[in-house]
Write a structure and sequence with these properties.
Layout (H helix, E strand, L loop, with lengths): L7 H8 L3 H8 L7 H10 L5 H6 L24 H45 L9
Helix pairs in contact: 1-2
Length: 132
C-alpha cells in the first residue's frame, strides 16, 4: 500500500471491496479471502503472489522480455497458476462446508430418531415374567 501511496480506504476503493475488509486484514483479525487476493493481483500488475500470501520475497516480480510475469524464485509459477490453485482450494473449502452442514443435519436426524425410539420403548407395555 505504501509503495502505491494508498491507505486502507483508497485501497478498498481501488480493488472494489469495503474498507472494513482491508482494515480487518491489516489488523490481523482476518486473512484475505480468494476474492480479495484475486482483486489485488488483477489490480496491481506484477505483485508477487508468494509475497502477497506469505510476506516472503520481493513485493514485485520481475518481468521477462516478453512481458510474461513470473515470480522471482526457482519454482517459477505464473500468477494464473496461483489463481487456479487458490480457486481449487476455494472450491474444496466450499465442498467441506457443504459436507459439514450435511453431517450436522444427519446428526440432528439421528438425535430425533433416538428420542422417538425412547418414547416408543417407554410406551411399550412391560412383559411380565411368569414365575414357575
Amino acid at each position: 500500500m505504501d509503495s502505491q501511496g494508498l491507505n486502507a480506504n483508497s485501497l478498498s476503493v481501488k480493488i472494489g471491496t469495503s474498507d472494513t475488509v482491508i482494515r480487518s486484514i491489516l489488523n490481523g483479525r482476518n486473512k484475505p479471502g480468494f476474492d480479495t487476493l484475486e482483486k489485488i493481483i488483477q489490480t496491481f500488475d506484477g505483485v508477487d503472489v508468494t509475497w502477497l500470501l506469505t510476506g516472503k520475497g520481493e513485493m514485485y516480480i520481475e518481468k521477462k522480455k516478453n512481458s510474461e510475469s513470473v515470480p522471482d524464485n526457482k519454482n517459477a509459477t505464473t500468477t494464473q497458476e496461483y489463481l487456479d490453485k487458490c480457486l481449487e482450494c476455494k472450491k474444496k473449502d466450499e465442498t467441506i462446508e457443504r459436507l459439514i452442514k450435511m453431517l450436522e443435519q444427519l446428526n440432528e436426524k439421528i438425535l430425533k430418531y433416538e428420542r422417538e425410539l425412547e418414547l416408543i420403548s417407554e410406551n411399550q407395555p412391560k412383559s411380565k415374567l411368569s414365575s414357575g
